[in-house]
Amino acid sequence: MNSPAFSFPIVTRVWQSTIGRKFLVALTGLVLVLFLAGHLAGNLLVYVGREAFNDYADFLHHMLHGAGVWIARIVLLTCLTVHVAATVSLTRQNKAARQSYECPGTIQASKSSLIMIWSGFTILAFVIFHLLHFTVRVSYPAEAFVDPDYLLATGEERFDAWQMVITGFSNPLVVIFYVIAMSLLCSHLSHGVQAMLQTLGLRSKKTAPALNVLSIGYAALIWIGFVSIPIAILVFQFGR
Ligand code: HEM
């Protein structure tokens, strides 16, 4: 006779085991980490100029006849939801375990997981602000940002995403908020990438030093790339 656990679908069984949820955090984290590298590479086109940046934005919106951007959004949203839900569930479980077995090592571990949880929630708040800012464009009506060069060359209108970014980062408060959020994001990343590599079984005594350099180096590169954009636009008046 099958045990009750075998009558559950695979997803439920993965979710019910601690190692299953750790794997879900690691795999969804990997997707989000790769997204950040891709998003940064695209955003750095802001330095190339209006045409390159708006061509790239156009490409994203018209990929697979417009379906590509929605597939990417669904994948990202699913990964983000699973990542947050599994982390919260694991943290609750650890807290309950600690209450019955307290020792100095677990106090240290709980401090760093608390930092991860709070930096994670701050990043979530940032992502919501960022989506309203640049994707929903609550304060940037499409008719106010028409790409002038494209209009001149083709006679057609297209959204001037480049100008939106330049205008968005002309506000010092927005820039300060982005720099704080990017810094928390990268602290979360440097710890998260190490934890992810450990869960995926890549960490051993021999590989640990190289993996530490890799995760800190990756987080540092992402930080430098992302913060350079708002700072260059505000401080060096880039694009104006
Ligand atoms: C200086 C830093 C950043 C800049 C200039 C920037 C720029 C942009 C722009 C222009 C868009 C709209 C793309 C479009 O619809 O054409 C966008 C979307 C988005 N950004 Fe960023 N971004 C930055 C940092 C980040 C960070 C750190 C994250 C993640 C933590 C992030 C996550 C997203 C997401 C999830 C979208 C929505 C994609 C979509 O559904 O269309 N961005 N970003």
From TrEMBL:
<dbReference type="InterPro" id="IPR034804">
    <property type="entry name" value="SQR/QFR_C/D"/>
</dbReference>
<feature type="transmembrane region" description="Helical">
    <location>
        <begin position="67"/>
        <end position="91"/>
    </location>
</feature>
<feature type="transmembrane region" description="Helical">
    <location>
        <begin position="23"/>
        <end position="47"/>
    </location>
</feature>
<feature type="transmembrane region" description="Helical">
    <location>
        <begin position="210"/>
        <end position="236"/>
    </location>
</feature>
<keyword id="KW-1133">Transmembrane helix</keyword>
<feature type="transmembrane region" description="Helical">
    <location>
        <begin position="169"/>
        <end position="189"/>
    </location>
</feature>
<keyword id="KW-0472">Membrane</keyword>
<feature type="transmembrane region" description="Helical">
    <location>
        <begin position="112"/>
        <end position="132"/>
    </location>
</feature>
<keyword id="KW-0812">Transmembrane</keyword>
<protein>
    <submittedName>
        <fullName>Succinate dehydrogenase</fullName>
    </submittedName>
</protein>
<dbReference type="InterPro" id="IPR011138">
    <property type="entry name" value="Cytochrome_b-558"/>
</dbReference>
